[in-house]
Design brief:
Elements lengths: L1 E5 L9 H15 L3 E7 L15 E4 L2 E6 L10 H10 L5 E5 L4 H13 L3 E4 L6 H5 L3 H18 L2 E4 L2 H8 L7 E3 L24 E6 L8 H14 L7 E6 L4 H13 L6 E5 L3 H10 L2 E4 L8 H8 L4 E4 L5 H6 L3 E4 L3 H13 L1 H18 L2 H17 L1
Parallel strand pairs: 1-2, 1-5, 2-4, 5-6, 6-7, 7-8, 9-10, 9-12, 10-11, 12-13, 13-14
Antiparallel strand pairs: 3-4
Helix pairs in contact: 1-14, 2-3, 3-5, 7-12, 10-13
Amino acid sequence: MKVLHVIPSLAEVHGGATAALLAMERAISVQGIAVETATTDDDGPGQHNGRPCGVALAEDGITRWYFRKGFEFYKVSGPFATWIASNAKRYDLLHIHALFSFTSVVAAMAAHRAGVPYIIEPIGTLNRYGMTQRRPALKRLSMRFIEGPILARAAAVRFTSQQEAAEAVQQGLTLKPVVIPLGVQMPDDANLCERPAGGDARGFTLLFLSRLDPKKNLEGLLDAFALLAKERPNTHSDVRLTIAGDGPAPYVASLKARASALAMADRIHWAGHVEGDDKRRAFEAADIFVLPSHSENFGMAAAEALACGVPCLLGRGVAVSDDVVQAAAGIAVTTDAADIARGLHFMMADRSALRTMSINARQLALTRFSMQAMGERLSHLYTEILAR
């Protein structure tokens, strides 16, 4: 079986979507499926990644194709459109990531013309938040005439959580939903993040690790952190917050200014973008992972935290929050600063309970969000589609 993944960009600045695609490549390859990926050379707004375009490149054991980004708007790429029109028939199946994107539209149309089945992965674009942010009127118009028919013709629409699927179905769209959670690399048992979950003499470390974007509700988190210090100065004077991630410079500057205005600057560490060993060390040092987002179609960073045994405080808009609550691996809160502060106080108030949450977090990741589980489910879906 030969499968082509199509995604508008593999730039790290796009956060979870890129990480999810890289994880899928590895997980599917292990199942014996030949995987290739086609994308643009986008490396963020106005930037190109410098990769050779229009040729097959071997990267991390995967064949990848890059095509020159012509316009920032919808990542338009004329060379990609020409290539996919001629090459879609070389693959047994196309797995298309994102909607409201040039590459997604032309790939779906090329697959349809070639008689090749395709899967759509909306990556959050079909949930309520995604449909009401960033040009909502244009999205509604595009959905009626472009994305709607593409979704209806798709062999499956893969969602990463029941919550994401439910929000899409509630919009009355014609589609064939399939729920397969994302998978994350589990730390080796020998290197399992062993830390005194629940804090000790060194106090508590809270970790936010994600792309810095208004959707993540960092404003609410900063305000909650200040409330925690103000309302319970004696019990939470030893709490520190690490913010790992990057975003547009003006937005990051506004967040740092907010932290200073709240008199919290000396208790916040801005780590910037972290990868590899730096990311592992960030999880190892954390007592609680915080992601109070307005909306997340999955929550890749939260799943990575769970894999390291880090209890989570998540916004109810984070799709994995229901799983976390049901597994007693953390709690879910609203995006209101006061509610976030109450949640943090609750989790830090009982150190033995927090340690139990840590154990539950690791078990949840093993059973629901492992790379092997995702690879097996995707392989089964591909086989089922081709058998039709």
